[in-house]
Amino acid sequence: MAEIRVNPTRMELLRLKRRLAVARRGHKLLKDKRDELMKRFLDVVRENRTRREAMETQLAAAHRGFVLARATMRPEAVEAALMMGSAPLLLDIDTMNVMSVEVPVFLPQPQDSARSDVPPYGLASTSGELDGAVGALRKAFESMIALAEAEKAAQLLADEIERTRRRVNSLEYILIPSLVGTIRSISAKLEENERGARTRLMKVKDRLVKRAVAERAAREYG
Questions:
Q1: Could you report the average pLDDT of every consecutive run of 10 residues in the chain (222 residues)?
Q2: Most buried by CB count within 10 Å: which residue of 35, 46, 147, 152?
């Protein structure tokens, strides 16, 4: 791993050690965040599966109802009934914070239950199979909204997991090894300089001692 190019001084060594401590602490926090995001993501995926199965069951029931309605009614009567306007489906969109990820929340606006339960077409010219199919399709719409909310949350969580994973890998395999290698290199260089300085001091001390001994001998025997 490439080392960071800095001057091999004690000030740089202290700065790099502090930076390494911050990087290791950030690495641990990001790993914890990634693990928690994975748990939330798996919960959402399981919820998606449940909601999708419910929606597919409701759509299948609606499809069977429409098939039976076309069998008991004239095709043009079915088409005329379905072309009638119905009450619009209105949504309030909010957000919820999940591990620093803003996921959408779809809230259907409350409607008059008496009006929403009444089909938009006249009941005299239609069959009960069509009524049941329309009701099943309305429930399927509600399941679709819940499924869309969960799938968008899963997508956003997956994107955040990928970003967090890249940050964790960058710290674990690039920044932290570079800091460790640079700290070792600077420490070795400083130790080498310290040994050289100690050796020079010992040589100077030896010369001073020899000079002092020689001067003392000269005074005593001179």
A1: 74 91 95 93 91 88 80 69 66 85 82 53 62 77 86 92 94 92 88 82 81 75 64
A2: 147
Exposed e or buried b per residue across 172-183, where buried means at least 16 C-beta atoms within 10 angstroms of its C-beta: eeebbebbbebb
* Cα 137 from Cα 70, distance rounded (Å): 16
pTM, two decimals, is 0.71
Q: What are the Cα distances from residue 23, in Å, to 36, 40, 110, 122, 190?
A: 20, 25, 50, 70, 24
Distance CA 57, CA 144 (A): 12
* Domains of the chain by residue range: 10-198
Rounded to an integer, what distance in angstroms lies between the CA atom of residue 70 and that of residue 91?
A: 32
Can you list the positions of beta strands (E) in the chain?
A: 91-98, 101-108
Asked whether 45 and 153 are in contact (CB, 8 A), the reply is no
